[in-house]
Amino acid sequence: MKLLNKYIYVFCMVHLGLNMVNAQQKGIDISKKQSVRIDPKNTIGLNVSDVFDEITFIPLETTKESFFGKIKRLEVTKDRFIIYDQDTRAILIFDKMGKFISKINGAKISDDKDNAIDEFRLVMEDMRTLISLQSGKNLFTFDLNGKLVNKGHTKDNTPKYDYLIPDSSTGIKFNKKIDSTYFELSLYDGGGKILNKFFPFAIEQILNDNMINSGKSLFYSGRPGRAFYTRYYDYNIYEIGPDKAELSFQITLPAVNSLPRDFMSNPSYKGKKMEFLLKNTDLYFGIYNVFQSGNNLFFNLSTFGQGKRSFIYNLKNNALVAVSDLAPDHTSYFLPVTDAGAFDEYNNVGFSQYVEGYLYTSYSSLAAFMFKQQSANKKPQYNEILTRYFKTQSKKSNPIIVVLKPKNG
Amino acid sequence: MANWSYHILPVILLAVSLLCVDFANAQDKGTIATGAVNGLVRDPVRNFVLKSATVSVSRASKGDSTLISYQITNNYGEFSFSKLPLGQSLKLQINNLGYQPFIMKFTISPETKLYQFKEIDLVEKSISLSEVVVTAPPIVMNGDTLEFNASAFKLDSNAVVEDLLRKIPNITVWGDGTITVNGREVKRLLVNGKEFFGGDTKIATENIAKNAVEKIQVYKTLGNKSNPLDSTVEMNVKLKKGMEIGYFGKLSAGYGSSGRYEADAVLNAFSPKLQITVAAASNNINKLVGDVATLSRNSTFKGVGNRIDYRPDFSISGITKPVSIGSTMSYNFIEKPDSFNKSTLSINFFNQNSKNDKSSSSETTTTLNLDEKIFDQKKYIGSSIYNSTNFDSRYELRKRNHVLEISQFFVKGVGHNEDKNEINSLNKDGPVSANQSNDRSDGKNTSFNFSVNYSLGEDFNKFPKKFKGLAVAYSIAVDNAANTRLTLTNFKSFIDPSADIKFDRKYQTDSRYIKHKLDMQLLNLKEMFFSKTALWGFNFSVHNSLSFGDRKSTNFVEDFDNPSFTYRDNAYLSNRTKTNMIEESPSFILRKSLSRDISNRYSKRLDFSASASQKLIRQIIVSDKSFQNTNRSYSRFVPEVNITYSNNQFTEFNKRYSLSYTTSIGIPSLEQLAPLIDSTNSYYIRKGNFRLKESLKRMLSFSFSHEDETTESTLNYGFTIAAAQIESNIVDSIYINNSNIQTIYPINLNGSRNVALGGNIRKAFKMSVSELQVKLASDAGFSRTPNYINGTFTFSDNLNTSTNLSLYYTRREYLSFELRYALSTYRSRQTALNNVYDGLNLATTFSSSVAPAKRIALSSDLTFNSFSSSNSNTISFAIWNVSLACRFMKGNNLEFKFSALDLLHQNSSVINFGSLNSFTIGTQQTLQQYFMTTISYYPRQFGKKRKK
């Protein structure tokens, strides 16, 4: 039910008009595609130290000012964590040790309290990383200490992109109509000039249909200026850049878990996709949260069922590991690296970020204290930070950030 | 005051009983449970631990496979049990979907007190399942649903669902039928996903054979999206395939001393879509019932028939002989209904013919002023026959955001009454007056009501629209009544012989009442006119209620004329009236909700609503008597404010506070404005007052509840307080003359107030094989009513309290004790006259039920009653009922029961109550000692009968 609520929410958020036709696409380079066969029921277990070289827990400081709900969006810079919390409608800035720096209170800066801020993006200005956020018709810019740098009208500023490829000035917009044709993706340079457009689609085909995904569809691929892209009701992972779109991974699932081939084209599914997926809970209906680190491909599969959802696939030895089955060991102080299997934070979001070879996730203090209690018999030797955290904090404290460096193998 | 020594005896009885049980327990087991066991569950092939595997520990000694405890493996695949018996053979069973079960016997050494399984490897279920011997696991975690497999619990072949639930650790079945799981109340119990015979849990838990059950499913339905822990618990009894069809019931007949008898017949039948009950009952032991559901609830296979809502009532006046027959039916057009897709028809029929004979003698003391009191000595004998028929039906259709309800009810009553009253009034100097009256009446009334409700809510599967929804309700009520009455009255005044009156009067009254009512609500209209964010978060709705009432009544009164020996028309009392009432009430409702949800920490919510409503009433009375004619209008502003605050601290508690302010008006009736005074009622003459205006009641109420969300030793409690003030309340101004004739004038007076308080607390302590449940509920009401007595202004203050404490102890299925204290008090005071009446009723009950052998049940119910008041001696008596029941036949279908009721022969039902300026004490005819033998047969069948 929780899952359903989330998906209905996502469905509403992804509003009408979004998306696409699952037809064969022209102009997509398939020469380097890698076929990946996975059976979600056939996973193996590994210790966290088998997958990650480094595991760091960073409790976020809890003060009256910094108290927040959960991390809806995390951005990581050289020396800051920037967090968007929907519960308090605030952007919180912590240093990389978890010390609270500042808070941008959405309700305070907004002219309209009920329509405060909705997330944020990072922009580069004068060699500085700044936080840019929109509220109504106003566009605010703050520095990484939470200090207001600029307040302007949205019209005065550069256009707002749906996604900005890290390490580049390329911005991406979804579902734009260009020369009478809709494209799922259109790419622009820093000056707003169109660079390329991919995946054309006929808007009539998706109107009044249930287009469901599990959140974002663009993820940094680790290669400068390029991003992974996944599509509705599709098991392919594309890599896009200003010059081209490539099919990188073609994932094949067992028939019992796969969508009917004509799921997008057969009119009998139109407007009934949600109903169909809720009835057929063995099916996986999409891919999200894709990151690649060396030979390890991290990804999540969308489903309304109880099956495992988050995986690590080793491109070299074809081993498939479910993130929820990773066994904590001494390198993680016997604490799980995600809350998968116990709470819903990881299952709903997956890894938040992949930056400079490090994956980021988080879980609540409620989960952390439960894990501590459950692992007490292993007599873990916590580091100074965790010792202080468990001694001075409680299950009601702020979440902790988990930083993971995947092994290269 | 009450004789407290009486009431301590049950406590001593309980203490002795518990000591005996404890001793028996010690003898029985000889061990104290202190052992522990732990382990880790893994899939060795795939190299990961299994989270959420179900692990159970049960006894493995011969003939005892009781489930002791169960757990779900934690995030590390580990389990750890404590408080297990030492030195006894135990069984560990582990189940995980997709894996073969792991079963192993073990014994915890008394020396080490610990058994470590270390690593347990589960083997994946191969495709060729037939080769594997499948043992049903007691518990399986299936997604978010906890499932208990019935076949894994070894119980008597005649066990029912309740016996199964009692075997499951962490599940408590309360004395009143409430079920809690880890202290949290099961809000709904379903059978195969549907309500079972009206949703009363006991009908399901005490009838359905455990052998018909495949599994018990416990799951949560989510209330708050941001709080995975904020949810309500539901339970579903999943029947085995082929068991979705069946019947059960009870046929019972008993006969006893003094001609006492009772007979009950209840038969329930069900199929996947249809549920039908047919019931009949008759007795002369004051077992009263008003519907089929009560009969069904008290005719369960497991039930011992000691419930408060259907047992011989020793406290009521007279002997009642009801004969009842009824049936209920419900049909689900959709086999698996839910909140968004439901189509259900239910029909109820109930007919009761009831004969009642009663008599009483009492004395009422009335205070006239500081020095003067009047005493009425009354004797009463009466008999009545009443036949009532109820027929109602309801159809409910739910389809996504549409809800349609169509319902009707029809009630018909035919009655005959005969009453004889003798009243002698005295003051301190001797008799002042005497009155004898004989009444005979016959009446017939019918009521018919039809209503249609439709509501259209928001469709959450579609994109939000500006129009949020509406609700429309229409109802029509038609009432007809026809009564005839013959009254003979003879009033004699010893002070003023001229006041003597004698009547022989006949009445014929006919009335017809039709009322149409139309309610309309347009909900959350803001977005129709403003943006979503406008108006500072306030939303508004409009509501209109309009009704038309039309009452016609005809009274034809005749007096016996001695000279002519005929009845002649009484021109004063014979009358025709027509009353039209139009009520219109438009309301504007403003709402705002504030919430603060912090994920995994807390969810706080404040809901505010204020309603501005104008109540407009037009009352038109047209009568043959011109002084009764009136055309009155009332218009009042009746605002309402509600504020609710809830604070849900995850894993700790959920507190809810509610504050509301309401206003309502009371308009004077024709009987208060301009009654026709019937002088046959010699002692009470009710006059009218045409200057009466409407009263306005303002009420402020507050409630608080605390729901524990911890998983161990939960404690839930709550309380309410409501205070009201009535402006221009319609109260009495009483003049009492020397012959004790009271002339009562209704007048408007300010100063009426009342306060009501209530609280409850509940806690259960579950031991390994026994359980103690503690419940305390208490309420108190205070009212202050201004009035005049013989021209002296006085306040009548009344204080009533009631406290119920119950301690209920059960040990396995063969022993239960209950100690109940029910204390009620009243205190009445007239401020100007400075007189106080108070009284106290205390009932202490010790109930016990023992099953010395499998098919024998011995029950005893001992109640000590004390009635005391400031003006009389304490009356104490005890009622002791004992019964012995034996079951026969393979399926325990036949029961012989011998009951001895009021064994001590002490019941003398006491009259003891106070009113504004008087109190009454006396005795009345009641049910007294009898012995009865009852034979009951329980027909039951789950699934189709197998052909031999």
Automatic annotation (TrEMBL), chain A:
Pfam families in UniProt: DUF5128
Protein name: 6-bladed beta-propeller
UniProtKB/TrEMBL annotation, chain B:
Keywords from the named record: Signal
Residue ranges, compositional bias (Polar residues): 423-444
Sequence segments annotated as region (Disordered): 421-444
UniProt superkingdom: Bacteria
Signal peptide positions (record): 1-26
Domain called Outer membrane protein beta-barrel: residue spans: 626-813
Protein name: Outer membrane protein beta-barrel domain-containing protein
UniProt lineage: Bacteria, Pseudomonadati, Bacteroidota, Sphingobacteriia, Sphingobacteriales
